Amino acid sequence: MVEQGQRSWAFRLLGAVACCVLFAVAGIAHAAPTLSGNYRDVHPGDEPAKVLAEAWTAPLPAFDPARMQLFPTSGAGTWVIVRALPPWTTGERVLSIHNPGAGKVSLYYAPDDRVTTALDDFGPPLHGHGRVAFAIPASIPDSRPLLLKFEPSDKAPGAVTISVDSWPDYLGDDATWLVFATACFAIMLTMALMALCFALILRDMTFGWYAAYLVCYALIQGLKSGFVFHPLELQMLAGLGDSLGTAATALSVSFAALFMLRFCKADDYVPLLRTPVLAFALGMPVIATLQMTGVSILVSTAHLLLQPLLLLGAVLLLVAGAIAAARGSRHAWFFLVGWTPLLLLTALCGAQLQGMFAGAPWLPDAAIAMGAFEAIVLSIGLSDRALTIRHDRDKARQLADADPLTGVLNRRAWTDAALATLEEGMGRPVALLFLDLDHFKSLNDRHGHAAGDRALVAMAGALRHELRPSDLLGRYGGEEFVALLRGAEREHAVQIATRLCRRVSRLDVHVGGNEMLTVSIGIAMRTPADTVQSLIERADQAMYAAKLGGRNRVVCSGPTAPTLVRSKAVPTK
């Protein structure tokens, strides 16, 4: 029932996320257009004035600047003309190009006056957050066409949208995006840091692979959006965005595969897919290495193999996670809820670069948000894993510390706990009780070892009932038990020991004839010179004195010899 409830919750959450994405893609509303645009390839001998004149006299391919458009940067680049539609305004404005990719873009204020910038540019021009921005002075009327040139580049182009806004609108939109992106990246990196801490504390590489995956994904989105350049100002990464992004993409899915294998327990639930997933995880770093070599044939090979392998690997991880979840892997459901929407958005963003979903310019930002969502979901799953590991370790420690028959502390665990108690100092008195069942050998001989085991279990239960939770009770060996009483003075310890004798007598365990199962108890009070071993030895000597004195009695060790403090513990019916 619990697993069915988890599956139902996972399916509802996954369905809600998928529906939001699909409905937004299918039914996005368009505001009234404020810009129109035309474009054409750059030809040899082109001049800005000639291109603007041609735009008035010859029909050029049109596009909607508010919808995502892919401008080729191969060859000599692309000319883009943007016109503001009436009613026109006056004043300073800002032209923004969203998601421009890693290439450079130029704006011509005049035929001989242009400004060139890029996401990774740290020069004088205006730098937007998540966009390429150009300041338009008030001297350029709103009715005048603006000429842009997407410069030739061997780097991957972006599917862009273009807008022209007043300075207040631009600053408000820029601040909103900056807060949004900062929050998303902060969530991803915080979750990665938390996972790294868990990896070090628990010594579990599942958390380490997850932290590495999150860092790579945050780097990918930071490079695509330009966040690592502005506002982070990581100038050392300028010019490396394309190659570094490709390497980070390959490594991210490699780390995701290694994480999935351990997190979803692929060895137990999907053993047949373990080898393909592991091969994929080990192969992607090879692709990243080829990409970083700079050798043209190796780079071309890596670029050719990267996208097909990414697609196959992502689907493989999804299938493996789904099978593991169906076969009972609790954590596979967390993986599916976090991985599936992110995989869907990644596929949609890739389709945008092929000219699809032009009416969903928010998809690149959604990919950033979905990275934060996945980080939260999988971190919850990892927290659940950490609690499970802790529970299993506590259970294993409890089993290792407990006597398997009686359930009290075994000799080793009791000795360790007693040592820790004595190391607390002499601030509180400590009494040690050494208990030994009387005629226990006779009980085993006459009634069998099963009867003896039942007597030991009953004895342990009686002792637990009489002692305080803070008292340390353990089985020392055979029919011998020890109890360390914190804060018990001599008289109090004797009273407790006498009560224990009476409680054992009332168990009504017949040894044979008229003999009943009883216990003899020796008491030793801790002195400054005592160790655990010396305290046990004195209590043991007192217990033997109780045996010699007739059994079923309490003897407390004195400064020189054991002292009988009660002649006999007579049971009360």
Structure explained in plain terms:
The protein is α+β, with helices and mostly antiparallel strands and 573 residues long. The chain has three domains: 2-23 and 177-397, Rhopdopsin 7-helix transmembrane proteins; 35-172, Immunoglobulin-like (Sandwich), CATH 2.60.40; 411-566, 2-Layer Sandwich (Alpha-Beta Plaits). 53% of the residues lie in helices and 17% in strands. It has 15 helices and 18 strands. This is diguanylate cyclase. It holds the Pfam family GGDEF.
Poorly predicted runs are 1-7, 16-31, 569-573
Return the structural class: alpha+beta
The radius of gyration computed from the alpha-carbon positions, rounded to a whole number of angstroms, is 38 Å
Using the 3D structure, state the CATH architecture of the largest domain: Up-down Bundle
For the residues shown, what is the average pLDDT? 85
Largest sheet: 6 strands, antiparallel
Strand fraction: 15-25%
State the helical fraction: 40-55%
How far is it from the N-terminal to the C-terminal residue, by CA?
Answer: 49 Å
How many DSSP helices?
Answer: 15
Number of domains: 3
CATH topology of the largest domain, what is it called?
Rhopdopsin 7-helix transmembrane proteins
Provide the spatial order of strands within the biggest beta sheet.
Answer: 2-1-4-9-6-7
The CATH C-level class name of the largest domain: Mainly Alpha
Strand element count = 18
